[in-house]
Amino acid sequence: MSDNNRKLGIIAGGGDIPAMLINHCLAHHIDFAALAIEGNADTEFFSGDKFAYKWIRIGQAGSGFKYFADEKVTDVVMIGTIRRPGFLDLIPDLRTTAFFAHVGAKALGDDGILRAVTSEIEKEGMHVKGIHEIMPELLIPQGILTKHKPSKTDIIDIKRGVEVAFELGRLDVGQAVVVQQGLVLGVEGIEGTDELIKRCQNYRRKGEGGVLVKLRKPQQDMRIDLPTIGSRTIELAHQSGLGGVVVHTGNGLIINQDAAVALADKYGMYIMGVNPDEFLQN
Questions:
Q1: For residue 9, how many other CB atoms are within 10 A of its CB?
Q2: pLDDT < 70 regions, the chain
Q3: 224 DSSP assignment
Q4: What angle is formed at CA 42 by the lines to CA 254 and CA 68, rounded to 5 degrees?
Q5: Is there a contact between 223 and 118 (Cβ–Cβ < 8 Å)?
Q6: Contact indicator for 179, 213 with CB cutoff of 8 Å
Q7: Which of 8, 56, 149, 242 is placed for a possible disulfide with 210 were both Cys, Cβ 3.0 to 4.6 Å?
Q8: What is the pLDDT of residue 59?
Q9: Could you read off the pLDDT of 152-182 as tens digits, one per residue?
């Protein structure tokens, strides 16, 4: 983003990453404007007049595009979690209604919807970017990041998790799976990773072990909705008795890596970045 003629538009959902990106832009003097999604974005962070932003509902695509056009936005990043809206949350404007009528059954899963949204943004003359293009340090590296390493039994569970997560992603269902003692305790659906981890606590077997595996879907655009972990993920995994967290190396994000690794070390857990193809061949 060194080109002074370009301006970043940030579509901000929930979680910590939108604030991290905005603070990065402020620190590096990157010109930007943000759309904060109601019911998702942090109301405390998106307050006052520290930077340019506008609150919109998910269904206000027309209003959002107009705001970005008025702000002369050239590049767009979509980042943060989005709670699935109910009808009253959506209340679509004409642009949103036309969008869903156009994509129809093609947008059956998260990836399909996000790819359609990306295409719609680019029809407006804006270029969609991935957060890793602006903050590459968020990408999880290859290998074990923690002091604690997975055992031989853990490796078996990780391989099982990688196999299942790959198929889960191929079907555009979710990115994450929890495995213990070779058994799939749960797969991610509409509830998201946090709720998956909490739910799996009820299904853990006696004994140690258990791993959360998160992979980028095979067909997924690198610019949108990359699998993400952070300290909250580690805390929830620990509370649910899991021994480690594995993420798609170079294709997943780790928020505040030092803090997440320190927390995992405290709990005797492992964090690992894996290349699925290479890992399954070993």
A1: 27
A2: 1-4, 84-114
A3: S
A4: 90
A5: yes
A6: yes
A7: 242
A8: 74
A9: 999 999 999 999 999 998 888 889 999 999 9
Torsions phi, psi for 214 (to 5 deg):
-125, 125
Reference 210, options 171, 158, 167; nearest CA is: 158
* Domains along the sequence of the chain with CATH: 8-134 (3.40.50.20), 139-281 (3.40.140.80)
Quote the distance between the C-alpha of residue 117 and its chain's center.
Answer: 16
Q: How far apart are CA 79 and CA 107, in angstroms?
A: 19
C-alpha distances out from residue 231 to 4, 45, 153, 235, Å: 35, 19, 24, 6
Ramachandran area for residue 52 (φ above 0: left; ψ -120 to 50: alpha; else beta): beta
Rounded Cα distance, 59 and 98, in Å? 11
Instruction: Please name the helix (run of DSSP H) or strand (run of DSSP E) that holds residue 84, with its range, or none.
Output: none
Q: Do 180 and 155 form a contact (C-beta atoms < 8 A)?
A: no
List alpha helices for 7-142, DSSP H. Answer: 17-27, 61-70, 87-90, 94-103, 110-123, 131-134
Phi, psi of 9 (to 5 degrees): -105, 125
Residue 116's alpha-carbon distances to 104, 123, 192, 227, in angstroms, are: 10, 11, 21, 19
Q: Note every long-range contact of 81-85, with CB atoms under 8 Å and residues 24 or more positions apart, other chains counting.
A: 81/13, 81/14, 81/15, 81/40, 81/192, 82/13, 82/14, 82/37, 82/40, 82/58, 83/14, 83/39, 83/40, 84/190, 85/39, 85/57, 85/58, 85/59
